[in-house]
């Protein structure tokens, strides 16, 4: 149940983040798609094991305790400004505090 909730929330956050101006894509890209297609056994799958660029952790009460997002920024955009916008959108979508959201810019294309 928790994995389904994490995957659903990760999907919603992904959609919201991809709509942020300046975001080119999420990482790890192709590697994550290959993992989701069956490269790992089903028992090992969770938001982190699936190679997701959006990783969710919950506290003991079931609230979002942490949200990690890896993004690639479009060239010509300010990475810091884009990361702040991603953090704000992700926090709102996940009903988390902005401090619980960690955004890593993994590249610029």
Overall average pLDDT: 83
Total strands: 4
How far apart, in Å, are the first and last alpha carbons?
Answer: 37 Å
Oligomer state of the chains in this structure: single chain
Order of helices and strands: HEHEEHE
Which regions have little confidence, pLDDT < 50, spanning 5+ residues? 30-36, 39-50
Helix/strand/pairing class, anyone?
A: alpha+beta
Q: Helix share of residues? A: 25-40%
How big is the Rg?
Answer: 14 Å
In DSSP terms, counting alpha (H) and pi (I) runs of 4 or more, how many helices?
Answer: 3
- Strand fraction equals 15-25%
Main beta sheet strand tally, sense and closure: 4 strands, mixed
Shape: elongated
Sum this structure up briefly:
The chain is α+β, with helices and mostly antiparallel strands and 109 residues long. It has helices at 2-18, 30-39, 79-94, and strands at 23-26, 54-58, 64-73, 101-108. Strands 1, 2, 3 and 4 form a 4-stranded mixed beta sheet that branches.
Describe this protein's structure.
This protein has 109 residues and is an alpha+beta fold. The chain contains three helices and four strands; from the N terminus they run αβαββαβ. Strands 1, 2, 3 and 4 form a four-stranded mixed sheet that branches. A hairpin with a 5-residue loop joins strand 2 and strand 3. Mean pLDDT is 83; it is low at 30-36 and 39-50.
What key phrases describe this protein's structure?
3 helices; single chain; 109 residues; elongated; four-stranded mixed β-sheet; 25% strand; alpha+beta
Topology overview:
Elements: H1 2-18, E1 23-26, H2 30-39, E2 54-58, E3 64-73, H3 79-94, E4 101-108
Parallel strand pairs: 3-4
Antiparallel strand pairs: 1-3, 2-3
